[in-house]
């Protein structure tokens, strides 16, 4: 558990270091976009680790060291995010960071909606396929019964 938290906070710290080293010479936001992606991913991992409590013992889950580490890592991640927000706004103009965060949230929402739509489409296709199978089976039964009755009628009729 602590190793996963360290991975998240380490990613945040390395992203911040990368942004700090590149922001002075960056011609546009694209020059540091990879670091920003890593910053968001690291922050996400830290937040997920705070809320993830499965597969850990009670001592690990509620221990002071665990709780303190999670809280401190979350605070550090928030501080680093704020620090980078200020640096990006100072370098590329006020509101740049807010635009990045807004666009990211919009894209995440669009991806969630697209995934939900894909699931609905897959379910609809599966339902349609099952309906086609039922229809085919019913037609086959009716034809089979009709052919069987025809043979039966021909066998019963006197020659």
Describe the secondary-structure layout:
Layout lengths: L1 H21 L10 H19 L6 H5 L1 H29 L3 H61 L3
Helix pairs in contact: 1-2, 1-4, 2-4
Helix fraction bin: over 70%
Query: Quick one: overall form?
Result: elongated
The class by helix and strand makeup works out as mainly alpha
H/E element order: HHHHH
Low-confidence stretches: none
Tell me the number of helical segments per DSSP (H or I, 4 or more residues long): 5
β-sheet strand percentage: under 5%
Please give the radius of gyration in angstroms. 30 Å
Q: Tell me the total number of β-strands.
A: 0
Mean pLDDT: 86
Instruction: Report on the biggest sheet.
Output: none
Q: Kindly report how far apart the N and C termini lie.
A: 86 Å
Compact description:
By secondary structure, this protein is mainly alpha-helical. 85% of the residues lie in helices and 0% in strands.
Structure description:
The chain has 159 residues and is mainly alpha-helical. Helix content is 85%, strand content 0%. It contains five helices and no strands. The chain has helices at 2-22, 33-51, 58-62, 64-92, 96-156. The longest helix is centred in the C-terminal third of the chain and has 61 residues, at 96-156. It is elongated, with a radius of gyration of 30 Å. The N and C termini lie far apart (86 Å).
């Amino acid at each position: 558990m602590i190793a996963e938290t360290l991975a998240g906070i380490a990613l945040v710290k390395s992203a911040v270091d990368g942004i700090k080293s590149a922001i002075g010479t960056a011609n546009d936001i694209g020059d540091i976009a990879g670091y920003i992606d890593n910053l968001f991913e690291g922050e996400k991992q830290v937040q997920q680790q705070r809320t993830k409590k499965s597969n850990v013992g009670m001592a690990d889950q509620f221990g002071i060291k665990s709780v303190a580490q999670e809280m401190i890592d979350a605070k550090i991640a928030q501080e680093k995010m704020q620090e980078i927000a200020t640096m990006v706004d100072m370098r590329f103009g006020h509101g740049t960071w807010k635009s990045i965060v807004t666009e990211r949230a919009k894209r995440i929402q669009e991806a969630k909606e697209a995934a939900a739509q894909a699931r609905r489409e897959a379910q609809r296709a599966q339902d349609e396929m099952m309906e086609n199978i039922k229809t085919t089976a019913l037609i086959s039964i009716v034809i089979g019964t009709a052919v069987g009755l025809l043979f039966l009628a021909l066998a019963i009729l006197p020659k």
